[in-house]
Structure formats: structure tokens, C-alpha cells
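A reminder from the course coordinator: this example appears on the midterm review sheet, so study it carefully.

Given structure:
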């Protein structure tokens, strides 16, 4: 442990050591009892941006927020492109003893997964890029859903509009990446610089993009021995560095392996129409001339019922298909629904009983365990049977192909229905979410807790 001044208390010594382990621009939320405290320069920044009172602990500036209200404060800091490290207490406080604390997660604009920190109807991408003599390689991930894609082009000018259309919440570069851009064409350099300016920017040491170590990391994450099965061979191996850097950055910030990742998809520039910023803006696809969603084209036609549906519609807008057969398949799906409007209305009602499963499952896998989220999974599974039945009444081979992909998960449905109360708490630690009679040992312990005075 580094030497520190003897005037620093053990608690502040612990704070300093944790703070030193963080990168620049990261604010440390340090749990003290019922508050997250910020110290020194972090406290001054927090006081200014959050409008909270600046006090002092000894000679150190200090500002705090109630831990149960932290989400709203965190959102403000994320929108200002700050990173927030959450340091929680993991030991039981004892008089005269220093409580053990650990970094439980680091929140950045591109790695948030809480529903209070991301827009339900909008994708939030984390993007990594690398420009070499061979071309431009990129990888992007939607951490809240597990969508993971890579792309490579020998003509960077063709790929840059695609990356720009993603509107990434955060972009990752190697520490010397921007310096290397200067060796390329001036117009290309300006395009990349403009792309980088639009998002929160994070630089990582060059070794984090090392292809050998990144290949091992990707294979371990996807539980495969080689990436050839995903089509990553030949010149496409250029994407391995950015993709591996993404995964290591996400794991580092979530303090957890990205368990929900099962595949990596190659984005092909030949499959969709490329829309540059000028086209997107002039057509007012997502923002009107008043720079708001109101009045835009997507606002005019978005009648989706679910958040996942809204995000999919956004993807359809960003990347219009070029493959005629795929376009016709979509048209036949639309025709199938238009010819069965009564069934469509019933489907809308059924879909209103579903929740955003992809994001819920990501949160559950990454230790943001909220019993009410399990209730949402149960409710959604209960809605699948009527949805599947309604789809089965439409005579369309394309729609039936979709319907065949819907599983009903009867065992999980029974487990959640048998185990969980109808009304569930938000906080796992409060208890009260497992039904009486589901587990004999739990019933026995509950009985002791309720009748402990009688036992004594």
C-alpha cells in the first residue's frame, strides 16, 4: 500500500487507494452509511453540477447524496459525460473497525443498463474503432440487450456514415489512435474527428487492442475455440482488436463477465442503404427542423406497443434494406397483418402485457436484482400463449415463421407462478417475494422470525 500522510484517517486512506485505481474523469461515489459521499475535486464537481451542498470533512471538501435516491443524480452526471464509480460497503459496520468496501460497478454513458439511465425506445451503443493501412475496423455493443456487431471496410468513407448513424453513447479508442489518424487523408481524419466529438470519448492503453489477447477474450466470452464460425477470417480479423477492447471495457465496468453474449454478428455494407448525417437530417428521420423528436418522420409513424418494437423500428429507419427478397418478406408480413385487422387489435392488447425482456435479463445477469423484474418476466411469459394463438390464426408463411420461434417456457412459467407473490418489492433485501408454502425451510425461518418472542 502506498505511503500516505499519518493525518489521514483509515477511512480516508481507504478512499484514496480506491480513488487512485480509477481513470481520469471518474467520480467516486463512496458509501458511508445511508449516503454516497464525494470528496475533494469530485465533491466540488458534484456540488456544481448536482446542486448539492458542499461541506468539509477535516480539510477535504465533501458532498453527499442519499443512496436510495442516487439514480437521479447519477443520470445528471452521465448526461454531462462523467463516469461514476460506485463503491459499496460489503461488511457489517462494527464500532472501531473499518468497513470493507469494494467497487461494485463503474457507470459510463455506454455501459449503463438500469432502466432509469437509458431510454426505453432508443438503443444505447458503445463503439470501438481502429483505423489502419488496411482500412477501418469497428465493433459496437448494446450492453443492455447483448446486441454485438462488427464491421470492416477497406473504404473507411463507406463505413463512417454507418457508425455515425449509430449515435453511440460512448466511443472507445486506443490512446494513440487519434495521433495515427493524422497520417491519413485530411478529409478522412476530419470525418473521424467529427464522429469522435459526438459521443463521450474514452481512451484505453494500446495493449487493450492487442489482437492475440482480444481473440482469446472473445472466444472465452462466446464459449468457442475459434471465431471462424462467425465468419471472422481473413481481413475481417481486423475487427478482433476493437471487439476485444469493448468486451474487456464492459467487464471492467460491470464488474462481471458479459454472460448474455452468445454471438457476434458481422455488419455487411452491401445489405443496407448507407444514410449519411446530411440525409438523415434533411429527411428529418429522427429530429424535426426544431431539433426535437416531435414532428420527425419516426414520430409520425411510430405506433409500436413495446420498447423493443420501437428500437427495432429505429433500426429499420437507420439501415434500410437493399435485398429485394428481404424487402418482399417484410411487405408480406405487413400484408398479413393488414388483412387481419381484428386480430391485430387483439395482438396490441396482448403485447401491452409484455415487458422489455432483453434488458430485464441483462440486468438480472449483472447483479441488478429486483424482484419486481422477475414479476415482469412472469407476466410476459403468461402473455406468450395468447400471442402465439393469435399469430397462428393469420395465414402467412412469414408470420408463421416468426410464430414458430416463440417458445412458451412452461417450466419457468410454473416456477415463477408457484414461487412469487403477486405483488413484489423493488428491493431484494427487504424480502417478501417468495410465497408461503413454497419452501418448507423458508416457512420455518419466517415462523421463528414472527413468533420469536413467544419462543423466548
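Designed residues:
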Amino acid at each position: 500500500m502506498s505511503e500516505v500522510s499519518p493525518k489521514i484517517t483509515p477511512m480516508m486512506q481507504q478512499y484514496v487507494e480506491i480513488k487512485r485505481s480509477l481513470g481520469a474523469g471518474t467520480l467516486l461515489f463512496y458509501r458511508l452509511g445511508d449516503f454516497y459521499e464525494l470528496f475533494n475535486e469530485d465533491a466540488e464537481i458534484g456540488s456544481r453540477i448536482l446542486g448539492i451542498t458542499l461541506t468539509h470533512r477535516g480539510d477535504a471538501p465533501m458532498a453527499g447524496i442519499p443512496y436510495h435516491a442516487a439514480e437521479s443524480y447519477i443520470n445528471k452526471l452521465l448526461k454531462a459525460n462523467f463516469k461514476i464509480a460506485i463503491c459499496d460497503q460489503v461488511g457489517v459496520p462494527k464500532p472501531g473497525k473499518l468497513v470493507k468496501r469494494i467497487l461494485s460497478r463503474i457507470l459510463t454513458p455506454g455501459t449503463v443498463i438500469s432502466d432509469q439511465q437509458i431510454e426505453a425506445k432508443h438503443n444505447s451503443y458503445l463503439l470501438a474503432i481502429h483505423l489502419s493501412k488496411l482500412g477501418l475496423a469497428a465493433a459496437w455493443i448494446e450492453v443492455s440487450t447483448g446486441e454485438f456487431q462488427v464491421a470492416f471496410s477497406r473504404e473507411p468513407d463507406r463505413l463512417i456514415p454507418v457508425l455515425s448513424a449509430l449515435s453511440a453513447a460512448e466511443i472507445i479508442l486506443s490512446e494513440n489512435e487519434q495521433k495515427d489518424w493524422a497520417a491519413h487523408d485530411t478529409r478522412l481524419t476530419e470525418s473521424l474527428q467529427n464522429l469522435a466529438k459526438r459521443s463521450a470519448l474514452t481512451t484505453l492503453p494500446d495493449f487493450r487492442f492487442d489482437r492475440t489477447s482480444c481473440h482469446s477474450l472473445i472466444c472465452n466470452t462466446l464459449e468457442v475455440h475459434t471465431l471462424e464460425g462467425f465468419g471472422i477470417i481473413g481481413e475481417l480479423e481486423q475487427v478482433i482488436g476493437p471487439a476485444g477492447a469493448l468486451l474487456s471495457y464492459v467487464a471492467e465496468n460491470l464488474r462481471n463477465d458479459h454472460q448474455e453474449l452468445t454471438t457476434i454478428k458481422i455488419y455487411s455494407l452491401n445489405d443496407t442503404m448507407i444514410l449519411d448525417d446530411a440525409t438523415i437530417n434533411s429527411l428529418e428521420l429522427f429530429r424535426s427542423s426544431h431539433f426535437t423528436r416531435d414532428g420527425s418522420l419516426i414520430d409520425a409513424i411510430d405506433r409500436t406497443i413495446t420498447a423493443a418494437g420501437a428500437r427495432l423500428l429505429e433500426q429499420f429507419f437507420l439501415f434500410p434494406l437493399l435485398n429485394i427478397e428481404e424487402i418482399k418478406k417484410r411487405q408480406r408480413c405487413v400484408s398479413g397483418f393488414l388483412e387481419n385487422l381484428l386480430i391485430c387489435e387483439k395482438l396490441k392488447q396482448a403485447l401491452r402485457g409484455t415487458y422489455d425482456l432483453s434488458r430485464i435479463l441483462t440486468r438480472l445477469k449483472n447483479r441488478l436484482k429486483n424482484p419486481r423484474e422477475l414479476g415482469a418476466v412472469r407476466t410476459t411469459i403468461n402473455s406468450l400463449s395468447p400471442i402465439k394463438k393469435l399469430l397462428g390464426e393469420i395465414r402467412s408463411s412469414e408470420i408463421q415463421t416468426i410464430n414458430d420461434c416463440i417458445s412458451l417456457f412452461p417450466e419457468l412459467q410454473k416456477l415463477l407462478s408457484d414461487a412469487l407473490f403477486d405483488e413484489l418489492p423493488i428491493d431484494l433485501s427487504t424480502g417478501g417475494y417468495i410465497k408461503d408454502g413454497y419452501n418448507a425451510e423458508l416457512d420455518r425461518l419466517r415462523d421463528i422470525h414472527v413468533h420469536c418472542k413467544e419462543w423466548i
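Confidence is low (pLDDT under 50) at residues 1-5. Residues 371-392 form the longest helix (22 residues).
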